[in-house]
Amino acid sequence: MFDLGHARSFVAVAEEMHFGRAATRLNLTQSPLSRQIQMLEQTLGVTLLERTTRAVRLTPAGRTFLAEAYRVLAAAENAARITRRAARGESGVLRLSFTAASAYRTLPQVVAHVRRTLPEVDLVLEEMVSDEQILALGENRTDLAILRPAPVLQDPKSAIATAPLARERLLLAVPRGHRLAAARAPTLRDLDGEAFVTWSPRGGRYFIDLLDRLFEAGGVQPRIVQRVNQVHAMLALVGAGIGVALVPGSARGNSMADIRLRPIALPAAIGPELWLAWRSDNANPCLPSVRAAALETGEA
Q1: What values do phi and psi take at 36, rounded to 5?
Q2: Which member of 150, 153, 226, 239 lies 3.0 to 4.6 Å from 258 by CB, making a disulfide possible if both were Cys?
Q3: pTM
């Protein structure tokens, strides 16, 4: 079987139609080049070139082999290019998990930017609540996660590394006919005793803790009437008149005709965050490049 070096030598001779010029092009002397072509012909068992003292011509077999040599060399170069890009993290597959709320704004921005800057990286997306993502990271079932902060992620002994990605503002979701739907901007004090829709512990522990701190600091106590796992369910209940809710700003992407989303005066440091998280020992070559691209979209 011939090797790639023999194929390159033959292509050079076939294109130059002159052993001397081909040898110069390949940084060889003419004798080694002639021996390579002879070895190639012996290996194939055919004559590829007709040689005279004045000219070199391709035989019919030589013309056939030239086309195949081009194909083989192109395939080899493509394989090398793909391998180099994979080693640099510029191609491959990365598993990206995300929270439902991030799908309104942050996730589309991240995915669009990764596709622009790393077009040969395939993202495998999976929606999970934050606790499930932390478990999936620990079990190497996901490479990169867009999730809400959790105490376990701040443990210095954790194998999971994090970086802030975005901070949102909280908005007050109210039915359109509600007293807080128009006129002056609502304040936290307006929520004292108000029927309130909030998160369940299963899907929204981060938000429960955030709102508990907020209400305690403000000295207000809403009347919780319903708990749900996802923002879209919360907005649906608000639209049905069940109560009001504080939701992340990304909820603007889930428009409903029967609700209003209003800014509410809150301490500047209060706002739900989204983090990127990954295992520090994850060996996926794509991870550093995708993580860097994701952070370029961040608003933290």
Answers
A1: -65, -45
A2: 239
A3: 0.67
